[in-house]
Amino acid sequence: MANVVVVGSQWGDEGKGKFVDWLSERADVVVRYQGGHNAGHTLVIDGVVYKLSLLPSGVVRGQLSVIGNGVVVDPHFLVDEINRLRGQGVTITPDNLRLAENAPLILSLHRDLDAFRENANSGLKIGTTKRGIGPAYEDKVGRRSIRVMDLAEPETLMTKIERLLTHHNALRRGMGLPEVEAQVIYDELMAVADDLLPFMDRVWHLLDAKRRQGARILFEGAQGALLDNDHGTYPFVTSSNTVAGQAATGSGLGPGSIDYVLGITKAYTTRVGEGPFPSEQDNETGQFLGERGHEFGTVTSRKRRCGWFDAVLVRQTVKTSGISGIALTKIDVLDGLDEIKVCVAYELDGERIDYLPASMGAQARVKPIYETLEGWSETSAGARSWADLPAQAVKYVRHIEELIGCPVALLSTSPEREDTILVQDPFQD
Ligand code: IMP
Fold first, then answer.
1. Which of 20, 50, 172, 341 could be bridged to 43 by S-S, CB 3.0 to 4.6 A?
2. Which CATH class is domain 4-100+200-257?
3. Which CATH superfamily includes the segment(s) 266-428?
4. Contact 68/250 with Cβ under 8 angstroms?
């Protein structure tokens, strides 16, 4: 039995939702292992639209869904999301949803800090989702988080909050923000404890048991590999590890439990927020891609920056995430272009390089080196077999495979689930 990790191979928004849904129907367990409600997945099932941020996609189809320890959980947001989906007729009970006891919580003071830093005129603007993700992960690594299990121990919760506030109130004083009373945080947490505690579980144990029973586990990544805190365009990244290896750490399973990594890859490139983007097209081409591809953020509604496919970046994330095969999405957005460019290398200070340099300065200085390919006038939208695709589109896909050193396992030609060309089934690798 194969266990599959789905990751974004660019800066997120590659169209993971469609494939996660397709795979989750055939999985026994679906696990979120990093990020939080900075993610946004839209699922369309039988014409009904479900918007998920924190809940694993499997929950809509009734599969056992797990929020792992690597996720940062805003407890109020989670309760609201559960209630919203229940309102749409989705059954969510401890039978089909489990929450890791050791997952750290996002508190109101994390949201305050995220927004304050982003709005401050001085310092580096990252363009975060302002949902408190970064500050919550900082507290986790700083060993002062309040975690899900702490809700079950109200007698010691106050002491933990006071310890956390020693740090936060010092910061807040320095920033000119009002201090926070421990009682306020205590009440905030107790207001949701009864709703959340029934879902709490020893997730590492549950997943180990499932794995031994031969269950198929789908690990659902959020964001994209270039937003990874180690391997991405640091500091313009998110605060978690988004590469596939995190599926193991963020759920409590060993690395040997991952059999296949599916890298969701858009046929061009987009990015939300600040940071380097060598193949960005801040011009008519970018506007064409944005309009055709409906490139607006699911969580913040921000307009996404758009550009040509960057093979240098994806070639690198194929390596840093150990991607076995890619699912290429949105090729139909390129229909009708006379020519299509692909970034194949960079020029850095007069030299040609074939990788993304690690330093922020060098990342800002790299210039894309393009190859130009002939476009196609026919439509690829809705194609369900290679024979349905325009010949030039097939050439484009084959060329991408060569440039990134990884095969296309799936090709998506519209948001509809059936408009997919299946080359290799990740679960039957
Ligand atoms: P944060 O995750 O809210 O701290 O934001 C850090 C960076 O990651 C910003 O550039 C965000 O726009 C980006 N980001 C966070 N979540 C997503 C996502 O789900 N899709 C695309 N970009 C994201």
1. 50
2. alpha beta
3. Adenylosuccinate Synthetase, subunit A, domain 3 (3.90.170.10)
4. yes
Is the model's pLDDT at 355 over the cut of 60?
A: yes
Indicate where the chain has its CATH 3.90.170.10 domain(s). Answer: 266-428
Within the chain, all domains assigned CATH 1.10.300.10 are found at 108-196
Mean pLDDT of the chain: 95
Task: Give the mutation target among 6, 34, 38 for probing the ligand 1 site: most ligand atoms within 8 A of CB.
Answer: 38
- Whether 76 sits among the annotated catalytic residues: the reply is no
**pTM for the whole thing?**
0.96
Q: Which CATH topology does 108-196 take?
A: Adenylosuccinate Synthetase, subunit A; domain 2 (1.10.300)
pLDDT digits (tens, 9 = 90+) for 141-190: 999 999 999 999 999 999 999 999 999 999 999 999 999 999 999 999 99
**In the predicted model, is pLDDT for residue 298 greater than 80?**
no
Distance from C-alpha of 252 to C-alpha of 261, rounded to nearest angstrom? 17
Compute the distance between CA of residue 20 and CA of residue 52 in angstroms, rounded to an integer. 12
Report the atom number in ligand 1 closest to the C-alpha of 134: 4
Pocket lining: 239 vs ligand 1, CB cutoff 6 Å: yes
What is the reported pLDDT for 225?
98
Span 266-275, pLDDT tens digits: 999 999 999 9
Nearest CA to ligand 1 atom 8: 238
Q: Is there an atom of ligand 1 within 6 Å of 38 CB?
A: yes
- For residue 133, the ligand 1 atom closest to its alpha carbon is 4
Positions of E strands within 286-332: 305-307, 309-310, 325-329
Q: Is residue 366 within 8 Å of 353, Cβ to Cβ?
A: yes
Could you tell me whether strands 260-266 and 217-220 are parallel, antiparallel, or unpaired per DSSP bridges?
A: unpaired
CB distance 13 to ligand 1 below 6 Å: yes
Relative orientation angle of helices 391-404 and 311-320, to the nearest 10 degrees: 50
pLDDT digits (tens, 9 = 90+) for 249-291: 999 999 999 999 999 999 999 999 999 999 999 999 999 999 9
Distance CA 109, CA 195 (A): 21
41 as an active site residue: the answer is yes
CA nearest ligand 1 atom 15, residue:
38
Range list for CATH 3.40.440.10 in the chain = 4-100+200-257
The closest-lying atom of ligand 1 relative to the alpha carbon of residue 302 is: 12
Give nearest CA residue, ligand 1 atom 9. 128
